[in-house]
Amino acid sequence: MIKKLELEVKSFGHYTNTYLIYDENKEAVIVDPADKAEIIITEIEKLELKPKYVLLTHGHVDHVLALEEIIKKYNIKVIANIHEKDMLVGNVSNCSNVFGLTQNKYNPEDFILLNNEEYISIGDVKIQMIHTPGHSIGSCCYYIEKENILITGDTLFSDCFGRCDLPSSNLDDMINSLIKLYKNFSEAQMYPGHDNSGMKVIDTYPVVRRYLKYTSMIDLDDFVNS
Ligand SMILES: [Fe+2]
To answer: Which residues line ion ligand 1, judged by CB < 5 Å?
Structure first.
């Protein structure tokens, strides 16, 4: 099961999606605790969930503002992609400055850093990390095969892909990540880091293809259908 919480980040009118994913025994993961920890905790208690991990799709500040409180409250580890390490516990900017904030340095011991295609389990639900660099070097998606759900973070939204002009962003990486998603997860229901959820990955293809064709002279058809 998946529950979406659309949380306002620092009351700036900027919203990020936090997801609670849980099995029938209420074992749960919290994906991207964006902000407003009290709202996340209230929902966890209402649903009587037992949090096991936090999963991060990437380290940007608007996805982690409630992270410290959630770690403290539930004494759980944080899963992220290994390539995001320098943003989480090192010196790569997580865009805190964009929100007028000072970057938080997290404790490396709180993290379990995984490689592409490694699995996490909650009960009998397996969640696979899919490394999708581009928006940041350690951006990733999470795939739940049992429900054909793909958590896409800021890699893919309902009507565009994530920006590639931030620290550790790379447009070539993003294009390869998008090709990977369209080739392998086209029928999955997607749950992005912002805005609408529930459409299929393939439903985003026409607008993304058109955008890349006219901005980067790249035709995704040449790669996705080959
Ligand atoms: Fe982001």
So the answer is: 60, 154
Edge-first strand listing for the sheet containing 77-81: 2-9, 14-22, 27-31, 50-55, 77-81, 111-114
pLDDT tens for 12-50 read: 899 999 999 999 999 999 999 999 999 999 999 999 999
- The CATH classification of domain 2-224, taken from the options 3.60.15.10, 3.40.50.410, 3.30.1490.190, 3.20.20.70: 3.60.15.10
Beta-bridge partner residues of 5: 18
pTM of the predicted model over 0.90: yes
CA of 11 to the centre of ligand 1 (A): 17
Q: What is the pLDDT of residues 55-104, one digit of tens each?
A: 999 999 999 999 999 999 999 999 999 999 999 999 999 999 988 999 98
